[in-house]
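Curious: why these numbers?
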Amino acid sequence: MPKEHDLHPGTDDHIEVEKSVQISDDVVGVIAGIAAMEVEGVAGMSGGFAAEMSERMLGKKNLSKGVKVQVGEKEAAIDLYIVVEYGVRIPDIAQRVQENVKRSVESMTGLECVAINIHVQGVSFHSEGREDETRVR
């Protein structure tokens, strides 16, 4: 079986080929955003006014909204801007988000997460199933 660095199998011409895989900040941002939203107690991501307007105007969901990423050759630093559900214990949610994001990013990209910073930007009071009651007389 020819080796990976053989240019012409069966000949003596062996040329080493440099291999490089670069993962964009956007790819890591999407992975981190999805992983954060998987955690129960996270109501959403906070992307700021510009991100909200572009999402509404384009009609597309921005999966990396609320995520800022710096990717190096072997490491990544991630900042997540989240909104939590009312009544949850914020330190617990933040820790679970960090763990889930670290696990997802590291397993999918091979990058080491050197920092995962959680910024809680708001609390959601939305409660499903509770509508204003109206009484009929």
User: Anything to note?
Assistant: The chain has one domain: 25-124. Residues 129-137 have pLDDT under 50 and may be disordered. The domain at 25-124 is CATH 3.30.70.1350 (Alpha-Beta Plaits). DSSP finds three helices and four strands in the chain.
